[in-house]
Amino acid sequence: MGKVAIVLGATGLVGGHLAKLLCRSNEFSSIICPTRRKLNFEHKKLHNPQINFDQLEKHRELFKGDCLFSCLGTTRKQAGSIAAQRKVDYDYQLEAAKIAQFNQVKHFLLVSSSGANSRSRSPYLKMKGDLEEAVIKLEFSKVTILQPSLLLGARDHIRLAEELGAKLLPALCLLPGLKSYKPIEGKDVALKLLNSSLSQQSGLIRYRLDEVFP
Q: What is the pTM of this model?
């Protein structure tokens, strides 16, 4: 019997790539992807219940397995305000983590952000840092945190700032001191998540962009 994975954010860039990788992996027998809207692909190992993330407590049974991959994320523009963005980027993910920890999920894997810091003046980087600190305190057997910079890849909607960044950052990041901010393909982050879930390391593991993707 293979492992059971739960993926949050499977309609997004990293989560979508990850769900497909997990479906193809012989190490996993079941992939649970709770989403607001139905995924655009199917697989015999994939379970895709549509849920209301404001009512996660009603779906506790979905958060049972070996690994919880938390890849949720939105932008201030999409959400409409910083408060609404924080609900997705912090509240939903922390609530899911608490339920999973209660259900004895052993491994929590989080896609955070380069520069995440609970003391940052940036609301975005602060919420990412706040989430990292909160999930570490939950005392999973293993916590893996990835801190990528700008994510590249095809999306179902256009993010103008990210489109511009994707064109400018690769050249800028050749300058000394800026390597840790270079863009990275969403599929590469997904592959690192999969490989990390199969690692025998335990405890807290944090991967920064320049340390993992040279």
A: 0.86
